[in-house]
Fold NAD-dependent epimerase/dehydratase domain-containing protein.
Amino acid sequence: MKVLVTGASGYLGGRLCDALLRQGYSVRVLVRSTSDISALSSHLEIFYGDIIDYASLLAAFSSCTVVFHIAALVEPWLPDPSKFFSVNVGGLKNVLAAVKESRTVEKLVYTSSFFALGPTDAGIADENQVHHEKFFCTEYERSKVAADKIAMQAATEGAPIVLLYPGVIYGPGKVTAGNAVARMIVERFSGRLPGYIGCGNDRFSFSHVEDVVEGHIAAMEKGEHGERYLLTGENASFNHLFDMAAVITHTNKPTLTFPLWLIQAYAWLSLLFATITGNLPLITPPVSSLYSILIKTTL
């Protein structure tokens, strides 16, 4: 059976490709001509295209039985927020249309995000949760909520789609926007994040990358069309995360705590400085809001 993976050059997509190859699947990947594919296996069939280019999608889907749609624009902030919608929303629309027209694709496994579910305010979410849409901390979050509504509508119309919602993915590998926990750890030990965020005891859901990969394969093999599945793991606090890192590295645990209002104030100053200098800010208001939604989400 031949499967196609979009977003293969990303953190999760690359791991999924490796796992599919190990299990004997024939794997084709759709990557942009500008993507860094140096880490991809030589056993993959490389197809150059873009999810915002419908013609390239249709050609890539030819003869494929399953499509994993993982590609997304994952950033806390961009100068042009419309890019989130052209990629995350427009790209999904193209994928759904190409699946329908391809005639060979029997299942579409769509990777959404726990951000599409919204904050739980310390409650416990399940597969029935939908975003309240009262406010959005980032344009990324807004775009994923919009895409989620499109995916669910497609499911009601009979599209062979399975929806997956990973938590905050962590694990070994390169530091990218898709590996946010690794980025936090790097910030912690570089001195740029020398303390706890917020009260430190609020929890959010961690998902190890290998577990998320296994969840994707299970969705391909067993997932029911139209169903939603949470690929989430342990609910843990920032205190626990940073304390474990300190124990493992034999370093001191953080002694400082940064309230969210202070982080947001610094974010606005960083953005103002960036506007004047033209340099990208270290942290932006959406990023500071991102921390607040992270620590309110339990799955």
